[in-house]
Amino acid sequence: MSDVDNLKPMNDRLGYSVGDMLIRRFAEVLTSVGLDAYHHLGGTFLCKGESYQELNVKLSQARQILRQQPFSVQNVDGRVIAIESAEFSFGIGTTVEEAEVSLGQRKKLRTPESGK
């Protein structure tokens, strides 16, 4: 299970159309690294793989791409802006429930002060 970080603040600041473009970009990146990915809810995708190691490697590759490859979006007032990088968290498990717990734990580790 993977989830775009800080999607709500981005939607609030730049508009839902920008958030939607980020979700589409995220989907493209997930599939570009060879992941079998399915949109779940909001900025969350479920990804299938043969092993924990394969998922970890491919999700880590996707994270690097989102960090290092800026992309352009059009915000609500029509201006084209560059998103320099985006982040996401992921959790891996043998069931959706396990992956969701793992994702929650990883998100807590990434933002310990906010408890997100």
In short:
By secondary structure, the chain is of the alpha+beta class. It is built from 4 helices and 6 strands; from the N terminus they run E-H-H-E-E-H-E-E-E-H.
Describe it.
The structure is a single chain. This protein has a single domain (2-110), classed as Reverse transcriptase/Diguanylate cyclase domain (Alpha-Beta Plaits), CATH 3.30.70.270. 49% of the residues lie in helices and 22% in strands. The chain is built from four helices and six strands; from the N terminus they run βααββαβββα. It has helices at residues 7-14, 16-32, 52-68, 96-110; strands at 2-4, 36-41, 44-48, 71-74, 80-83, 88-90. β4 and β5 (80-83) form a beta hairpin. The protein is globular, with a radius of gyration of 14 Å.
Keywords:
6 strands, globular, Alpha-Beta Plaits, 22% strand, 4-stranded antiparallel beta sheet, 116 residues, two-stranded antiparallel sheet, single chain, alpha+beta
